[in-house]
Amino acid sequence: MRFSELGGPEVLRIVDEPPPVPGPGEVAVDVAAIGLNRAESMFRRGTYIEAARLPAGLGYECSGTVAALGEGVTRWSVGERVSVVPAFSMNDHGVYAERAVVPARALVPLPDATGWVDGAAVWMPFLVGYGGLVETGGLRAGDHVLVTAATSSVGLAAIAVANRVGAVPIATTRSSSKAEALRAAGAAHVVATGEEDLVARVLEITGGRGCEHVFDAVAGPGVADLARATAAGGVLTVHGLLSGEPTPFPAETLPDLWMRAYTLFAMTHDEQRLRRAGAFVGAGLRDGTFAPQVDRVFDGLDAVVEAHEYLESGTQVGKIVLRVGAAA
Predict the structure, then answer these.
(1) The Enoyl reductase (ER) domain covers which part of the protein (predicted)?
(2) 202 with 296, same domain?
């Protein structure tokens, strides 16, 4: 899959190319399923943190089998089941393909008991949730954590991570129509921001203190309200830019808080952090605490435009997956 101009889903094109050959430190993967992410929509539209070098490919996350090894790769074997996690630039690698070449460091083993769709849906959301809340955020048992855009795959994973740590997740969504799904996913409280006052509701829930942690995927001017909902000395972590608007520091209230930006690359480009994250997420997968939330599955690369249109609709609860290979 390639795109030669920036724009909506309609710019995506399927092209025939020779099978790619892995270079030193790289692995070729026969792709079975692809997990879609908002970052890919933003990359295509030109609003991502990195500008696309056209013509460009797409894709951070997939499951499949190792097809070939590049020079110097000894950790993996041909035929091994793997998941690919975001540990590269989409200007250099992309997994929207029948066969993709990625850095060997971007692979994690896929257990036999985990299907292709789940293997393409689980790692990115839980790595973001663990990395932003626990590894760098210091989330502790008893803390209240406010999760925005909570029906996204990352939002749902953040709720699960908070519960595993013993924290209290408060989920936000625009409409109360999604409240029951969020409670079923483990949210202790749900705030419908289009129907009630966010700050007043959070202060009510927390006994006037505010949340020790805010995990925000939206950014933009809404951080002013999020700051007012943050406890004194709390942490407001911005991990997404869904609003597409500038994000000011809310200095007009001189808040006593830490405001920080977080990207998944802080985890996936650091070997020791990724090792700890893999252990944390893997433990949750094994004991059933963590499970991917898949909203909808599309079949075939030729469904990529429809899948991206659905991705941008904002109606999903959880992950969107595109099945590709015959093995899926």
Answers:
(1) 7-322
(2) no
